[in-house]
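Structure ticket #2291
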Amino acid sequence: MKWFVFFIAFILLSVFFISCSSTKNIEALKPTPSDGTPVVYQNKTSFIGLPVEITLKDIEKQLNKNLQGLIYNDSILDDDATEMKIWKSGTIVLSEKNDEIVSEIPLKIWAKVKYGTDFLGLNDTKEIFMDGVITLSSKVNLTNWKLYTVSRLTDYKWNQSPSILVAGKVVPITYLVNPTLSLFKKSIAKQIDKAIDETCDFKPYVLNALAEVSKPFLTHYEYETWFKLIPIEIYATAAVLQNEKITMDMGLKCTMQTMVGQEPKNSFDKSKIILKPVTRIPNKAVVAIAAVSTYKSASRVVTKNFKGQEFGSGSKKVSVQNVELWEKEGKLIIALDLQGSVNGTIYLTGYPQYNTTTKEIYFDDLNYVLNTKNVLLKSANWLLQGTVLKTIQENCRYSIAENLAEGKSSFEEYLDNYSPMKGVYVNGTINDIVFEKMEITNKAIIAFIETSGEISVKIDGID
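Resolution: structure written out below.
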């Protein structure tokens, strides 16, 4: 975390500029860290309301992509006295009228109809051929990210006259088929509904998009900072068809965190994501982030940034060889390995605090560890002067207003037509990031920050 690196820098600079001219060796007793149990902290869950929009053109594209050639085949005659095969013969065109999807579907239909009676074998079958464009009107419902339709055949236009095969010859029967087409209406509509239901499942796209945004990503190379989003549950309202698109509200319950150090593991498991139906979702995002900086990682970053640098003037110079941080009995221990006018390690202790008015991080009750005091009394007692410690404490401040603004800017990059995958676009606005509180654990310093805003998702142009 940037602010942490900078306020450690203030401590170092304060000590270096008041170092004595002659070299002195100090050997203070190192305070032992707390036990090595894992980091445990309670992070708030975040809730993101996501109005979702799916264009009819995208559904049309998916239908034409997935419905090819033979789309229905009923080869059993005896169950309902009808065999039927249906082929899609051209491009399906979708539109919207009176809150229903209107589908114009080019089809070729072959049917074998059995008629008569089985008594004494008095029955016969006829084959019927139809080629044209049928029009369906469909009530639509999007449940569990899958499109379901209930359709009825409302119109038909023949490219070729419907015909039957008689004695090996094709005989037009338009005058017979048109009045009796009601025999096929329900069957054709039912099969088209089935084909739509099977091909318009958007759940994989939603889960794949979640999988992408759940991958930990590096937010700052120099400070080895990673961001991680962990989805928990997804909520969704009923779908509404209007203005050539299907809209619905989705809600994402998740946790968010930042980590300093190595890349965190990706814990996303799409099989564990639950989609829950709800009647209403507020159109807002409430985001709580736990920014976790382990002492090991923070020590390595601070050492890397300051090791080898010299501070001071003339003969009064010291350099930092190593910096270590850890927790002891609820306080933060800062170990500074110095070389130059003062050689050895000094230990400081205090409580990191945050000033909500000035947006500054500062140390409360900053002091030398008791054993360090005793050593400095004998070898470098000038470090014990009240003015010296006061100077350290006064300078151990760092405004994080710029960092909070930078964090907001980083968020906004993912809300400006951000596309986690082809055809999925995220837009929105976010308010200022607010620092809530800070906790010290046995393994890390955890800063809790919050923000709010509005986010929307548009599905348009998926493959």
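Closing remark: Confidence is low (pLDDT under 50) at residues 1-21.
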